[in-house]
Each structure stands twice: as C-alpha cells, then as structure tokens.
Amino acid sequence: ISLNEMLAHLEEAVETERDAKERLRRFVADASHELRTPLATIAGYAELRSQGGLRTPEEEDKAWSRIESEGRRMALLIEDLLVLARLDQSQGLRVGNVDAARIVRDAAGDHAAIDPRRPIQIEAPESVMLEADEERLTQVVTSLRATVRVHTPEGTEIYVIVRPAGTVVSIDVIDDGPGIPEAAHEQVFDRFYRADPSRSRSSGGAGLGLAIVQAIVEAHGGTVSAAQAESGGTRIAIELPVAVSSEPNGY
Fold first, then answer.
1. Fewer Cβ atoms within 10 A, N terminus or C terminus of the chain?
2. How many Cβ atoms are within 10 Å of 209's Cβ, its own excluded?
C-alpha cells in the first residue's frame, strides 16, 4: 500500500470518527430537549400546587392529569432511547426461528382493533421463516403501523406485503395517504426527525419510531428505505436476510 493510500485511509477514519461524534452530540442535544419539555410541565404544575395556585378540585384534577400524561411520555421516550442505545452497541438481539408472515398478520389484527378507520390488507404466504429477534421484528411492524396512524387521515388504506426472495425476506408497508416530500425520504429515519412537528408532538411522538425501525433492521443485517407509492402515499421497504451472520447477543 502506498503512502498516499495510507494517508487517504487515515483521513477517512478521522472523518468517520468526527461524523460519529457530531451525530452523538446532536443526539444528546435532541434527547435533552425532548426530556426538558415534559420535565418543565411537571415542574410547573408541582410548583403551582406548592404555592396554592390550584384553588378548585377541577384545577387539581387537570394538574394531576397533565403530570401523569407527561410522566408517561417521558417513560416512553426513555425506553426508546434505551432501545437505540442497546442497538448502537450491537446488543439486544435474541435470534431464533421466526415466522414473519404470522407477525404481520398478528399486527394487522391488532391494528383492526385499534384503528378500524384505516383499513389494512395483508399479502403474504402462509409462512415465511427467517432468523430474527421476534420481539424486535414485531416492534418494527408495530412502529410502521403506528407511523401511518399518526401521519395520515382517517380512511387511509394500508397494505403490507411479505415476500420471500431467495436469501432475503421483503416486507413492504404501503399507504395511500398524502405521502412525504421526496427530499425527506432519507431524513425520516433520522432520530427526532418530524415531518410535521406540531402533529407528531401532540400525539406523543418524539420522532424516534422510524429511527428504531432502521436500527432494528440494520442490527439484523437488513436494509430499510422510504419512497413514494404508486398511490401517491408512502412506501417503506424492508429487506431482511433469511439468516443472520453474527451470533445473537442477549441483554
């Protein structure tokens, strides 16, 4: 290897490390911001109560309701952050034989009960087996379903297509909603990214759903991407290898 090649590799390594540190800095800053909001609400109501500012039972009930609501939001955010931290450290997968078609059908049944105004259709063989962490794969499908629920109007139809293709299994989640701008197709997987900040915050989301989907899929050695569907909505395409190459890590 020549000196120039060595210098190029060294420069690339330094740049990669610099980018990783910058991503970490942004992640910590964004996480702090997300936690600060519910903390400020809880502290505000607590201080109001301690100073006698809640004069009626109705005001007391509203304060406790907001404190409980923001506390739950913090708990969910912290759990999501822990999931990402484990996956960042290549931990958290418990791999076994999993039927992807069954997981998708189970998720569709849950969706029909939770959100009947957004009909869901499944196209999948009777069984599609692969090596994966069943809990995490279920989380992927559930997160995608929840993302559609948050970002599309009632009446939006959802299609989930599961196909075995040689050494990979593809899972496509397609909706006929308003879609997302083409320029945001890659950004939607960034941590804390919101295509519609006001709407996702009001529903309790922190912009981590698709980031977790990407982290789980990549931890399995797979890929995930977003594109415009033929209907004009959004298509999330996942490819997972039938067999993972690394040993599973417990947690």
1. N
2. 24
H-type alpha helices, the chain: 3-50, 57-88, 100-114, 134-151, 197-202, 209-219
Distances (CA, A) of 158 to 21, 69, 149, 231: 38, 29, 10, 11
Q: Are 84 and 206 in contact (CB under 8 A)?
A: no
Q: Quote the pTM value.
A: 0.69
Query: Packing angle between helix 209-219 and helix 134-151, nearest 10 degrees?
Result: 150
Residue of 178, 185, 192, 197 whose CA lies nearest to 224:
185
Report the DSSP beta bridge partners of residue 98: 130
User: pLDDT digits over 47-70, tens only?
Assistant: 888 888 888 888 888 888 888 888
- 237 near 225, Cβ under 8 Å? yes
